[in-house]
Amino acid sequence: MPRSAELTPAAVHVVAGVITDARGRILLARRTAGRDLAGAWEFPGGKVEIGETPFQSLDRELYEELGIRIDEITPMIAVPQAYPGKRLVLDVYRVNGYRGKPRGREKQALAWVPREKLATYPMPPADRPVVALMTQPDRYLITPDDCADRNAFLQGVERALVAGIRRLQLRTRQHDDLPSLATAVQALCAAHEAQLLVNADIDLAARLGCGLHLRAAQLAELAARPLLEGRTIGASCHDEAELRRAESLGVDFAVLGPVGDTPSHPDRAPLGWRKFAALRETVSLPIYALGGMEASDLQNAHRHGAQGIAAIRGLWLS
Question: Closest Cα to residue 13, out of 47, 57, 56?
């Protein structure tokens, strides 16, 4: 069974391995002619057969495809994804050790790809969240609204950055000079090589040259992706329609919730992980789980296809 076991039995369980070489490059295999999505690049692996564990299946598939035997694997993410006429769970593992030299035993092309170049390769939809997990932050801090004490607020931002936060959304409606505050937060983010997104304000994002996080209400209002060349855009979503709209606009990731109970959305019934996974499979966007999340929820989020977690209180260090 998939690690994301709450999905219905109709979902096909597929395993894939992330294999790295001594230079840190990652092995991709190209789908051969005559297969679905022929020509796309993917992490090597295949379907789990009845009675196999994920390890057994991955060892068999990688031997058949590449001629290698694996020694140890670590779970990374299980991505539920709907395709025309079928559903699958792409269950991805990091291969920590293997024997042999990978070669294309099925006449498939292979490529050793630097991590930062993975997103430039055309891949099946289920692989996109895997790439996001490997190349982008798995925690997304949303700042609290209360920033009346500017110095205390900035100290809180810096504490979070020192603790390892590398993607941060500035969301506040309680500051008289938001551009000044945003500039100060941007400087802190730059010092820690972290990414700043401002909430909703397209003009401010353009002026600062930072990222933008769209509110759900903005998704219906926009005719196209905001013209912020080279800047990351995220979006808040609560249902399938909003996820599909976010994807059609070309945003880089979505935040979906609330998954659990949260004081910031007391009027919304929690989705729960089953519903989160069901919504996750309707798009190929990388998605953060929001709502009652703590750092300890990361592993569970990955098991349900999330790139990571987004949180205010759970990631804001008081």
Answer: 47
